[in-house]
Amino acid sequence: MLLEIALQMNNLGMLDSEDTGVRNRVRFAWWGAEEAGLLGSEHYVNTLPDAQFEEIAANLNFDMVASPNYVRFVYDGDGSASGDEGGPEGSSFIEWMLNDYFMDQGLATAPTAFDGRSDYGPFIENGIPAGGLFTGAEDVKSEEEAGIFGGVAGEAYDECYHDACDSLENINMQGLDEMSDAAAYAVNVLAVNDLPTPAAKLLGRERSIANAGIDLDYRGDRLRK
Predict the structure, then answer these.
(1) Where are the domains of the chain?
(2) pLDDT computed for residue 225 by the predictor
(3) String of b and e for 88-110 (b: at least 16 CB within 10 Å)?
(4) Catalytic residue numbers?
(5) Which DSSP string do the residues of 81-119 spell out, in sequence order?
(6) Is the pLDDT of residue 217 over 70?
């Protein structure tokens, strides 16, 4: 999905032209060792030079976007649905942007919490705004969700999650198409528009971390609490 977005941006001349309205650089990243504790993304964030750290406007997280029994989950940037404080300043805008896109498409969404099970974790812990999409893992789809999103109630969103059957055959192509379009929209919006930088982030990494005050339940698949 991300490679296709990058390819289409290049085909449109968005990556190498000053005439396309692109104001922000987009860095595409694939993290390793997520299940072992977000090791790849944590190393990336922790070793960023201060100048680069200050330039990161947001992290968009697209981890699991084609679950067979999917729900269109959007990360709860403002914490209003999950009962926590949400992500750093700017995360609520990303949530609104994605929900607004799906609403325009006539597609329902549901919120999902920042619990630390994906690679947004090190970013929000360091005060970097984040948001993104998710279609569900091992949890079971409810009757209410099946009524809204289709699929089968009482079955996992992805019965092959972290199993040998998690292959290219284990993909819901309609879900992938819907989420890919939303991801491309989000990347485009942030590429051509400025997202306000959290005030604490401008004061340096230590102040940004302290201000974020994020205490995640998980580190990848590892429960911390």
Answers:
(1) 2-9+31-223
(2) 41
(3) bbbbbbbbebbbebbeeeeeebb
(4) 34
(5) TTTS--SSTTHHHHHHHHHHHHHHTT---EEE---S-ST
(6) no
